[in-house]
Amino acid sequence: TGKESREKKSVNCLYKFVLTLNATSWMTVIYGISKQWTIIELPCWITGIILLLIPILLSLISLIVAKGLGNDSLSGCRESSLADNEFIPTYLGYFFVSLSVADNVTMGFIYAIVFVFTWLSQTQYFNPLYLLFGYHYYHILTEQGTSIFVIAHGSIIRNSRDVSFDSLKRINDTTYLAMKGKKV
Q1: Which of 12, 54, 175, 179 is the one with CA 20 to 30 A from 68?
Q2: Cα-flanking dihedrals φ and ψ of residue 182, to 5°?
Q3: Are 138 and 82 in contact (CB under 8 A)?
Q4: Strands 147-153, 135-142: pairing kind
Q5: pTM of the model
Q6: What's the maximum distance between 2 C-alpha atoms anywhere in the chain?
């Protein structure tokens, strides 16, 4: 129905927002640590730990929000390639930019620009913390010839014949999340 469609779009938009925060929050974390921010008179090292916890919490929230995304499945593919390290240079770029910014106002503008570009691109779907949580990233060419991006929990898929997911969460038409324990 129309109401269910609007609700799914809202969940997808919320998920994309959380993913974009995941992707860009590292800029603020690195900047805050380099500028030795403090929160309520806490030592800067405690503030640094709190700042480091923000992306971890956002990542966990994104996995919870993903449960509300639409369902899909995939079995068989022509090709699959591991993409775990593909976006690491982007994250390193965020770190270097954050370390080179002189003041809070400039950082605010740079963060806003990066946030918008990340929102409009597909780089927000990569989260290095997911690697720590046991997820891997794949470019998959389906049997129908469609190229999709899959974020999947579990061991690395080494053979295209082994690609089979019984319950994918649809992030958009080309990006899917295979939740923990859902790979066949």
Answers
A1: 54
A2: -105, 5
A3: yes
A4: antiparallel
A5: 0.81
A6: 59
Q: Kindly list the distances between the CA atom of residue 88 and the CA atoms of 45, 126, 129, in Å, as whole numbers in the listed order.
A: 26, 9, 11
DSSP class of residue 171? S
Whose structure tokens read 């969940």?
11
Distance between CA 88 and CA 18 in Å, rounded?
19
What length is written for the chain?
184
Which phi and psi angles does 117 have, rounded to 5°? -65, -35
Q: Which two tokens stand for residue 140?
A: 């998959």
Other CB atoms within a 10 A radius of the CB of residue 153 amount to 17
- The pLDDT tens digits of the residues spanning 62-94 come to 888 888 888 888 887 889 999 988 888 887 888
**Which residue type does 126 have?**
F
Among left, alpha and beta (phi > 0; psi -120 to 50; other), residue 145 is left
